[in-house]
Specification:
Layout: E1 4-7, E2 9-12, E3 15-23, H1 38-66, H2 69-82, H3 85-96, H4 102-118, H5 123-143, E4 158-162, H6 167-172, E5 178-183, H7 191-198, E6 203-205, H8 210-213, E7 219-223, E8 228-231, H9 235-255, E9 263-264, E10 270-277, H10 283-289, E11 294-298, H11 300-304, H12 312-325, E12 330-334, H13 362-367, H14 369-382, E13 387-392, H15 398-417, E14 427-432, H16 435-439, H17 441-445, E15 450-453, H18 455-463, H19 481-496, E16 500-503, H20 514-520, E17 524-527, H21 532-540, H22 544-555, H23 560-575
Bound molecules: phosphoenolpyruvate and magnesium ion.
Cofactor: Mg(2+)
Catalytic activity: L-histidyl-[protein] + phosphoenolpyruvate = N(pros)-phospho-L-histidyl-[protein] + pyruvate
Protein name: Phosphoenolpyruvate-protein phosphotransferase
Amino acid sequence: MERKFIKGIDASPGIAIGKVFLYQESELTIIQESNRTVEEEKQRLIHGQEKTKEQLEAIKEKTLLTLGKDKADIFDGHITLLEDEDLLEEINDLLEEGNISAEFALKTQIEEYCKMLSNLEDPYLRERAADLQDIGKRWLYNVANVTIVDLSSLPANTIIVAKDLTPSDTAQVDLQNVLAFVTEIGGKTAHSSIMARSLELPAVVGTGNICSLAKNEEIIIVDALTGDIILNPSQEELEIYKSKQEHFLQEKEMLKELKNKAAISKDGVEVGVWCNIGSPKDVKGVLNNGGQGIGLYRTEFLFMNNDRFPTEEEQFEAYKEVAMALEGKPVTIRTMDIGGDKSLPYMELPKEENPFLGWRAIRVCLDRTEILETQFKALLRASAFGYIKIMLPMIMDITEIRRARKLLEKCKAELKEKGIAFDENIQLGIMVETPAVAFRAKYFAKEVDFFSIGTNDLTQYTLAVDRGNENISHLYNTYNPAVLQAIQASIEGAHEAGISISMCGEFAGDEKATALLFGMGLDAFSMSAISVPRIKQNILNIDRASAKAFVDEVMNCATTEEVLAKVEEFYSKLKK
Ligand code: PEP
Ligand code: MG
């Protein structure tokens, strides 16, 4: 077998050696006409239905063991939908007309039902449309005899190689057996990369055409420190990478010695070093790495890994679990940020030309206020169990804050009337992700309790460069002087209005950015848990005066290249 070397982008650090599992979503082409008899088509339909039921029962069993009865019960609902007699009758009626394939009749009728359900008033019934879509897809694949890939049960020592992985694919990955993943597209700030970092799962993205080069079961080395991939490595390479892996793990252990240390600069200025999480499961990593709080809890994964909107109770449980585990340390929870590259299987989002500029995040929540109100109530109730702060994403206009605050006040009043406890002084803050906020930071700051800079989006919106488009990934750079100026303006505006400002975009965890951000006056850094020890160490090694002088030099640079050269120069001097 031929050795192949592929270069990609290091998206989540670590080194893994394992076997390739090529993940490809199976393609299904549906042909309307049939050359079978009506009876044969009906048989295919029933056979697919039975197979689907078997699979759903198996998933239910597995869910019962891993996630408990509540989640497992969801699949009973799915089976009921699958066996809906009216639905089957209507598909059969279509088949009776003759000359139609079972796949076509099934797809047509499912679509019809979904449309009907999603137009209903009752939110519970509306949400069933997504269930039906999901079941319909499985049923369809089973009629056509096309296998559905299940990422949650893969053999040991697997390395997933895929064109792309969605955040929900990533969430499904079985961490017992999967050692790493490699994708053809995507960048460091794609949400699946971010999730890989919080799962501490090594990942390399942007590898071009790896799916056509790799074969199932081949040995693969993933160096997610450099972005290097080797297929069918030599014995010598295997030895080299095994020792590189050991070294990486040792260093990781060593840095953990900083776990209980505060991040105080040489001249005594302390900053917060917080973590970004996507679910309560990530809290373990935060505590192990010495995170001093949560600067960003991306709640949309709670919405995405579900087949319907999570209830107030389910949300409350998740938020409470995190708040309690953090024992009084700040827990900044962001309201649902759906849209852009994050979709919900059960919520129809419009097809948009520019989803990142479209119906996303706070825009969705202010149109569908019931979603935001449910989330606010769950957050408020959980605030009685720890130090919760609420954060709104994608703000670009002050009226958005005012409308959200009004809803929050309404939720507070409701809880109060019912005698339910919550933190009356709960803080409301916003993400700084649009130039609209950065340029007018002082005015926005007067309306909220805190800011957190989301550089992943701030970079794409300042530069007009899509964060997930690999064709222009060379243009996406947070060190671009315009982005740095937007960051600086946000920090100055926040301080002028007397509020604190942190950063939860990926730039906060960039080791080469610490001095710049510290020099600009950032109050707290929030990042993937694995980056915490290094950023703490960086702060311990600098002082404000030299960091400020460095900022002045950098802000006089005309191009990104000049900035990067200055940054390199600064760090090489520091190392000496
Ligand atoms: C950001 O935009 O920097 C951010 C932290 O939000 P997300 O990556 O979830 O869009
Ligand atoms: Mg964002």
